[in-house]
Amino acid sequence: MELQVGDPAPAFKLKNQDGEEVKLSDFKGEKVILYFYPKDNTPTCTTQACNIRDNYQSLLKKGYKVLGISTDDQKSHVRFIKKYQLPFPLLSDTDHEMVNAYGVWGEKTTFGRTYMGLLRTTFVIDENGLIQEIIRKVESKNHTDQILRNS
Predict the structure, then answer these.
(1) What are the helix (H) ranges across the chain?
(2) Could you read off the pLDDT tens digit of each residue along the chain, which spans 151 residues?
(3) Pairing mode, if any, of strands 64-70 and 90-92?
(4) Rounded Cα–Cα distance for residues 131 and 75 (Å)
(5) Domains in the chain, ordered, with CATH?
(6) How far is it, in rounded angstroms, from Cα 129 to Cα 77?
(7) CA-to-CA distance for 90 and 37, rounded, in angstroms?
(8) What is the tens place of the pLDDT at every residue in 73-104?
(9) 145 Cβ contact partners less than 8 Å away, ≥ 6 residues apart
(10) Quick check: is 50 catalytic?
(11) Backbone angles phi, psi at 137, to 5 degrees
(12) pTM of this prediction?
């Protein structure tokens, strides 16, 4: 069943780039942006991450915590963060537990080839742990504007 605005955000417990455990419950009472992206160090994912990085202070001023999530491992996240000076944590979901819980693993088509992969999707979660917004058509170059448009 696809998640909808108003649904409780599925709980999770994943490791960040430093191997530290991060849980949704750690952010109780805070607004959270969970942005799912396919792969570290790929052109569109880099554009998206850098757009969030470049506008990070605007997100913080609105009270948001930012978490990036992909199925890449911690070592890949460390390299990606260092290379682009990303100021927010990246979580590793190598076993697909979270991508399945959030319904962001599905069929994709690139250059006429169909395959299963992580669907670029962002969830904005309110202070009560409810999904406030779901952005399924992410514009990587303007992603922060998409997030802030309704805040």
Answers:
(1) 43-54, 56-61, 74-84, 97-101, 143-148
(2) 799 999 999 999 999 999 999 999 999 999 999 999 999 999 999 999 999 999 999 999 999 999 999 999 999 999 999 999 999 999 999 999 999 999 999 998 888 899 899 999 999 999 999 999 999 999 999 999 999 987 6
(3) parallel
(4) 30
(5) 13-148 (3.40.30.10)
(6) 26
(7) 10
(8) 999 999 999 999 999 999 999 999 999 999 99
(9) 55, 139
(10) no
(11) -110, 80
(12) 0.94
The two three-digit tokens of residue 39, written as one number: 């792969």
CA–CA gap between residue 4 and residue 121 (Å, rounded)? 13
First to last CA, the chain: 26
Q: Please report where in the chains the tokens 């690139």 appear, as a residue.
A: 110
Q: If residue 22 lies in a helix (H) or strand (E), which one and from where to where? A: strand 21-23
**Which of the following is catalytic: 14, 22, 34, 45?**
45
- What does the block give as tokens for 115? 């395959």
| Bridge partners (DSSP) listed for residue 91 | 16, 69
Q: What SS3 class is residue 51?
A: helix
- Tokens (6 digits) for 121: 């999707």
